Amino acid sequence: MDPVVVLVLCLSCLLLSLWIQSSRNGKLLPGPTPLPILGNILQLDVKNISKSLSNLSKVYGPVFTVYFGMKPTVYGYEAVKEALIDLGEEFSGRGSFPVIERINKGLGILFSNGKRWKEIRHFSLMTLRNFGMGKKSIEDRIQEEACCLVKELRKTNASPCDPTFILGCAPCNVICSIIFQNCFDYKNQTFLDIMEKINENLKILSSPWLQICNTFPALLDYFPGSHNKLFKNVTRVTGYVLEQIREHQTSLDINNPRDLIDCFLIKMEQEKHNQKLAYTFENLAFTISDLFGAGTETTSTTLRYGLLLLLKHPEATAKVQEEIDHVIGRHRSPCMQDRSRMPYTDTVVHEIQRYIDLVPTNVPHAVTCDVKFRNYLIPKGTTLMSLTSVLHDDKEFPNPEVFDLGHFLDESGNFKKSDYFMAFSAGKRICVGESLARMELFLFLTTILQNFTLKSVVDSKDIDITPVISGLASVPPPCQLCFIPV
């Protein structure tokens, strides 16, 4: 068939589908005209999808549609909060993410849907709380790990170092204590290997190539590329998780569950006659992998980016350390009760999270049914994003592209809350480990600054704080710094 005829047919089919969508009791969402097959991909910067969407919102308004390949995606600007919270149930689906779907087959907690997702999310949240998340017991565990972190940083002898893996080990050990009842020495080779795989996977998932693969999933089968490395890394991490599960099976005491794996195995036995199984061996493996990876990489990347920003803004670092000296001193460990008396430090933590916008387009949501939203009809299954629009809203945060502590600090020096602070997402899909991450970020960062002066190997004005990748996550540039004991 003549290529021109094929092109015309494709375009006709696309226009027909758009016409059908617009005629179903609602207006068609505005947006740039998509090309056949390609959609709007050529109008987007795959190195920074979030920025491209933000620019388009200035043209088409707060709610519009872009096509990633042949799938519509709605980008909400001011509308994100209204959608995720006010219409939380309707917007609680997980949007299409073909690369991950190839790996986990819709299992686990992060990328699952429907009743199975609700069941596993509820189980995970309750179990994490039972093992101390948000309570004093997990605070004690984080403080203990913070001491280990300080000891490891002292071993650098104030020499220039890249703290990526050291900063990753601390939150990883905290989540390991909950799901595996097991912690690692920071030099353990298995530990370092898994940390390396998790760190590498975040970079791959955020790369331009993976954005293209998610748009055109057929590429995964026919082209070489970093997705194959991702699949290999996931197999390695999942293999470790399966080893842990098998060990737990052999030593399980149903009357004395030690960790999340034990609790899941007990639930599996209780639910074995349920025809719609959520509690399966395979689902356990992917749920643990999700908690393991997310509980490690998000916090460690935020800490790493936070230290980079503090190097860039030494005046802010000095004020945090002054507050630490005044409220805590040098002879006891920071605790969560200190936070209410440390508004400047609390502000710095919040502004770090707002500024770096760790997951800029959010892990994609989807509508679970046809929904009327702002006089538009959004069809069931439509993918939605983004959070950048909220964290960088210029009405709520003047000069949103600038690291400005005035965003969370009032004129009297008091911390001011903002409903626009959605660093952990919002609504039904809000991060399961939010309270744990909040504790970790405050305690780890405060403990580091209590014990060390940060010194850059270059002048602060020459420090580049631009993310090297901004896809699924914003990944900070590598950084060498010195941790000088105080």
UniProtKB/TrEMBL annotation:
Cofactor(s) required, per the database record: heme
Domain of life assignment: Eukaryota
Record EC number: 1.14.14.1
SUPFAM superfamilies: Cytochrome P450 (SSF48264)
Binding site for heme: 431
PROSITE patterns: CYTOCHROME_P450
Pfam family, one: p450
GO BP term, example: organic acid metabolic process
Compartments it resides in: Endoplasmic reticulum membrane; Microsome membrane
Keyword annotations from UniProtKB, A to Z: Endoplasmic reticulum, Heme, Iron, Membrane, Metal-binding, Microsome, Monooxygenase, Oxidoreductase, Signal
Protein name as it appears in the record: unspecific monooxygenase
